[in-house]
Amino acid sequence: xxxxxxxxxxxxxxxxxxxxxxxxxxxxxxxxxxxxxxxxxxxxxxxxxxxxxxxxxxxxxxxxxxxxxxxxxxxxxxxxxxxxxxxxxxxxxxxxxxxxxxxxxxxxxxxxxxxxxxxxxxxxxxxxxxxxxxxxxxxxxxxxxxxxxxxxxxxxxxxxxxxxxxxxxxxxxxxxxxxxxxxxxxxxxxxxxxxxxxxxxxxxxxxxxxxxxxxxxxxxxxxxxxxxxxxxxxxxxxxxxxxx
Length: 244
Prior knowledge:
By secondary structure, this protein is of the alpha/beta class. 30% of the residues lie in helices and 35% in strands. It has eight helices and eleven strands. Strands 3-2-1-4-5-11-10 form a seven-stranded mixed β-sheet, with helices on both faces. The chain is globular, with a radius of gyration of 18 Å. It starts with 8 loop residues before the first helix and ends with a strand. 35% of the residues are buried.
């Protein structure tokens, strides 16, 4: 399988990824950004980083609101696509474990956390976030809810998003990791990928954030801003960096 022997995300975030998640459009991104803006009410002078920004949809919306925003993503494919769509944005290839610069707000959206099997490497991401945040800065983590994932897991789905392309997704849970095997069947051949995300519950996430000096201030269970609940679809945590 492509990706075995290397981190799965080094192979996956390419043109096939864009095809699979084509339904994640600007309207979906607007819902997420609306909750962020209504909660944080950022001044136009704050510096915002979208960590794992993909094509930069969220960055573009924040930019339209007059905010200073930058985005980094490990995928050169997604960054180049973003630059072609939004040439005015500050998008760059970067590793979330080694954030460069200092920011007042850092965003991890659409489950762009928990990509490593080892807790230490996921903690390295949070440590990187904490170092890059200015004192009193805010980290916004939009993550899955393991209880919801376990209850709602669909073992297999098949769809044909366009002519000549059939996508088979098979899902399972291995211990505390949710795994998705993805098969693209096309006229030019088959492509295989895998997604792996560590399942951290809210209490564990809160403790991990606290370990790097980030104290939770608010939590939500969906993009409409409803209160977090054990069975809700998302775990959205807003944490603030304590004064050094």
